[in-house]
Amino acid sequence: MRFSSIIQSIIKLIKKRKKLSFFGGVFLFIIFISTINSFFSTDTPIYMTAVVKRGDIEDTVLASGLVRPYRLVAVGARVTGRVVAMHVTPGAIVQEGDLLAEIDSTDQENDLKRKKSVLSNSQARLAEQESYLQQAQETLKRQEGMIKEHAISRVNFDDAVVQVKIREAQVAQLQEQVAQARIDVDSAEVNLSYTRVTAPAKGTVLATVVEEGQNINASQSAPTIVILGDLSKMTIKAQISEADILKVRAGQPLYFKVLGNPQRRYEGKLETVEPAPESIRMDESINPGMGTSSALSSSAVYYNALVHVDNEDNFLRTYMTAQMHIILDSAKDVLLVPSDALHDETQEREAWVQVLVGANKVVKKQVVVGINNRVMAEIVSGLDEGDIVIIGSRDGLQA
Fold it and tell me: Which residues form the Multidrug resistance protein MdtA-like barrel-sandwich hybrid domain (predicted)?
């Protein structure tokens, strides 16, 4: 019966009985509500479904990390003094040996002059003693001939021998002094060269830490002057969670994207996975007083994984954030269903699904599951392309 005809019948009944009792009116109202409810209600269930179709699938481990230059160098000063000149600014590209900064060299130049003066004096004294030695050797040689002819006494001959030995000892001592003086001069020259801070390798100036006129103290440690990096190749240090670390290993393929350009995908492979988390440095058994075992056990554990990638176009910048996907398994052009369609998946990768046949017929089928990344799952066997699987009911609950 159509809904409109039912309403018309109720209206006619009301017109025939203009004077209805109170209970009669209530009775007609109940009939009206029941009629509407029965018209709109249905016993046919409504399912959330998905079509089995072909596609590609990956099972990945997600990690994030910072992009850093493959070679990052903090160029420091090895002498104390005032910075008299800075020859580079951030962004400058330098070659090995290029001058980066100059430090006041007055003290080093004066020290070099003193060391050279000591060397000259030692060399002069050595030359003098060498001449005395030569003279003593000539005297001894003459007396060797004279003693054979008994022209001199044995005492005079022995004195000549002693004089040669004394002169030889003095020459040897001065030779050592000259050698030490040369070392001191070389050291002074090296210290003077330290006032000219040069690039240890080719790279890009990422930051200048000091300014012209600033005094630096290198008595205990080398203060950083310039931070230099080779941007032609970058390294990503990604953090792998404890829950995923047993799934990853060196050599696995991966891809990553950076927040500045999420459309661009960088391909690579996992170079190394560090065997211990960085928190091991705080272990009290290694560094007493640095940390406690309870503090380490209560914090999240992450393992560092390193990835190297070419950066010839210099698109990647220092300390960009990279979202990394380490590929554990992948397949192309396979049958796929939402993971929510699977029920009771076993370790043997078997499960069952509900297939909708026709308008409301549901058939239970066994399937063999391949890759399952908890979003989509590969179906190795048990379903055909185009099948409709049930993934939930109208109420949002899994069927």
Answer: 72-227
